[in-house]
Amino acid sequence: MKDGRHLVWILDDEWNSHELEKSMYNQHGFEVKVTRSDKLEDDMPLYAPCADGVVAQVGFQCRADVIDKLQSCKVISVSGAGYNHVDIEAATQKGIMVSNVPDYCAEEVSNHTLALILTVTRRLASYNRKVREGKWDPLDTMPIHRLSENTVGLLGFGRIARMVAAKLKPFGVRILVHDDFVTEETFNVHGVEPVSLNDLLQQSNILSLHVPLTTETNNLINYERLKMMPRGAFVINTCRGGVINEADLETAIKEGHISGAGLDVLEIEPPSPDHPLLKMDEVFITPHSSYLSEESIDELRTRTTQAVIDGVHGKHLPYALNQVKTETKI
């Protein structure tokens, strides 16, 4: 609390305007301060000790050194679905709730996943480039296979993957799924085939990734696992870049075992201009934009803000990522 008002500290390198958030906070008597990463050291002693709530924009590192300085904070609201940039263990030890917004962009990401599948399997980027170069030859990008003849493997079967499965069904593809945390009943309801990870890799012509980045999933898709896939397979990633070992993906494509990849995420974003995958015609990359629409952004900002207001007032957070002992902070 600062000057008798609850203080919200927004850590954000992405958005330049926070008028929507400020309007909501002002209605509840909250003061708002925004910090960019290049000003963090200067702002930390000013706002960290008295912040009642913190907004952690995806990509802004909210690590233990920051959390340790939070003396009055009740809630950290992650502005997005991914939360690997927040040290949840450190927050839990400080008695701070952490909440995210996991489903605000499920429609957008599932649509983007399908767009990437169609773009790389139909080789649209190559066609477009060659037409621009004055080449009009539909046969110079073969092989292209009928989509319905493919098996699509979904690694992870949360909200987004379930929407991807529903949208793939009209194409007539076979859909395999691997997710150890989903019940048999859920697989049956969605009409997909649950298989082991090895079976998923060995049978999928198109592998689409839908898992969080954890110690278990970091570099999960490495050279060994890429080589398990059928020759000519494609890899689609709209979850987190670190799930794929990018050097191994480059090697597998150069060897001709993997035909191509559609990536919305990379391990380091933005990538360096000399990143090898940027120079490969077989790889189609978008700038971590699968979440984006006017509607999804408004929903994200509104729900992120509401989570801070509710958390500061001690209300239930439906998407809490941790459990803490309830105690009054002065």
TrEMBL record:
Keywords: NAD, Oxidoreductase. CDD domains: CtBP_dh. Gene3D superfamilies: NAD(P)-binding Rossmann-like Domain. It holds the Pfam family 2-Hacid_dh. Residues 114-289 form the D-isomer specific 2-hydroxyacid dehydrogenase NAD-binding domain. SUPFAM superfamilies: Formate/glycerate dehydrogenase catalytic domain-like (SSF52283), NAD(P)-binding Rossmann-fold domains (SSF51735). GO terms for molecular function: NAD binding; oxidoreductase activity, acting on the CH-OH group of donors, NAD or NADP as acceptor; transcription corepressor activity. Residues 21-322 form the D-isomer specific 2-hydroxyacid dehydrogenase catalytic domain. It comes from the Bacteria. Belongs to the D-isomer specific 2-hydroxyacid dehydrogenase family. This is C-terminal binding protein.
